[in-house]
Amino acid sequence: MPARILSGIAIRDQIYAELTQEIADLSGAGIRPGLAAILVGENAASQIYVRSKIAACEQLGLGSWQLTPPATITTEELLALVAELNARDDVDGILVQLPLPAQVDTKRVLEAVDPAKDVDGFHPVNLGRLVSGRAGLVACTPAGSMEILRRSSIPMEGTEAVVVGRSDIVGKPMALLLMHANATVTICHSKTRDLPGVVRRADIVIAAIGRAAMIEPDWVRPGATVIDVGINRITDAEEAGRIFTNFPAKLAQFKEKGFVLVGDVHPGVAEVAGTMTPVPGGVGPLTIAMLMSNTVKAARQRRAQEQAPSSAHRNGKTTGAAAVKR
Ligand code: NDP
Predict the structure, then answer these.
(1) Taking the CB of residue 22, how many other CB atoms lie within 10 A of it?
(2) DSSP states of 271-317 as a string?
(3) Which residue segments constitute the domains of the chain, with CATH numbers given?
(4) For a surface tag, which of 50, 117, 121, 294 has the fewest beta carbons within 10 Å of its beta carbon?
(5) What is the pLDDT of residue 78?
(6) Are strands 184-188 and 225-228 parallel, antiparallel or unpaired?
(7) What are phi and psi of 310, to 5 degrees?
(8) 3-class DSSP state for residue 37?
């Protein structure tokens, strides 16, 4: 029986409906969450990503700003820009679109973002919180993958989960989230021995590799849940023909557009898996939805913090309304 296909678009819409309500409530309290995106240079793919993120802000009624410094910017200049955004009260979320030009120290820039505004969840403080199970702002793609699993009622507790890929932005946080959901997690990478054998043990497979159609149907245990994080653009006719031999609609798409998208999972896996996410339309839409969700969460948490009694007050040194910052 073919796999049940989990639509990321339907889940994104559910999340947007919930966020719309939350944003209206915040608006009633005079708060409009806002996201500032720093897009350095003219990278075409980055421009498309940032455009869709800003469009999502506009759709939901969030504030948004796009800052577009030139590709020649120095680390110090970018740090100054981040510091400015850290200090602005109307900015709740800061996103630095990657990759940055070679002359910029990416790590220093990401670590300069105020952890309270780190809506990409890349700051070491937020990663540390995730490790210790007190997750604050979590990286959007793994957080979105978890939303798909949860909202599709896929059981996680006690299951064998295999994450293929160990990047800081997808594989590692994904593995931690699954572990906190009480799955038994194995992380695989390019040095893993017998990758097919390890994947075959999994009740839940997460593919975050960056290699087109790599997870083959005979690697997957019948009935398993497969979350395909990969997005690969195939422009080679021979490769498209090989991957999509039994998928005439995809081949027709290739002929028409000159390219076709495929995940890290072979489309034939749908004949073996119990449940699977499609590409496109699976994890992709959730990544932006979680960015929106993190921006709203950052706004809520920052205001709550601003309204909380100061530590002096908590220590009993100050009392009364004067101790409450507004
Ligand atoms: P990275 O290149 O940072 O990491 C890839 C990981 O895959 C590495 O850990 C690498 O292992 C592992 N890997 C590479 N080749 C093999 C192999 N032959 N066998 C086993 N493991 C291998 O990629 P990202 O994590 O950033 O992204 C992964 C995928 O997810 C990409 O397709 C990307 O386009 C997609 N993506 C999708 C998003 C979305 O919104 N849907 C957002 C972000 C990413 P090693 O560490 O040993 O090198």
Answers:
(1) 16
(2) GT-SEE--SSSSHHHHHHHHHHHHHHHHHHHHHHHHHSBPHHHHTTS
(3) 28-115 (3.40.50.10860), 158-281 (3.40.50.720)
(4) 50
(5) 98
(6) unpaired
(7) -65, 165
(8) strand
Q: Tell me the per-residue pLDDT of 22-56, one tens digit each, with 9 for 90 and over.
A: 999 999 999 999 999 999 999 999 999 999 999 99
| CB distance 166 to ligand 1 below 6 Å | yes
Note the pLDDT of residue 52: 96
Q: Whose CA is nearest to atom 3 of ligand 1?
A: 167
Rounded Cα–Cα distance for residues 269 and 263 (Å): 11
What is the distance between the alpha carbons of residues 60 and 227, in angstroms, rounded to a whole number? 27
CA of 162 to the centre of ligand 1 (A): 14
The string of pLDDT tens digits covering residues 200-223 is 999 999 999 999 999 999 999 999
pLDDT value at position 93? 98
71 DSSP assignment: T
Q: Is 171 in the pocket of ligand 1 (CB under 6 A)?
A: yes
Q: Collapsing DSSP states into helix, strand and coil, what is residue 232?
A: strand
**pLDDT tens readout for residues 182-196:** 999 999 999 999 999
CA 216 → CA 1, 8, 115, distances in Å? 17, 22, 39
Q: Is the pLDDT of residue 311 over 70?
A: no
Percent above pLDDT 70 for the chain: 94
Structure tokens at 5: 């296909």
Largest CA-CA distance found in the chain, in angstroms, rounded: 73
Instruction: Give me the amino acid identity at 128.
Output: G
238, with CB counted inside 10 A (0-12, 13-18, 19+), is exposed
Atom from ligand 1 closest to the CA of residue 287: 40
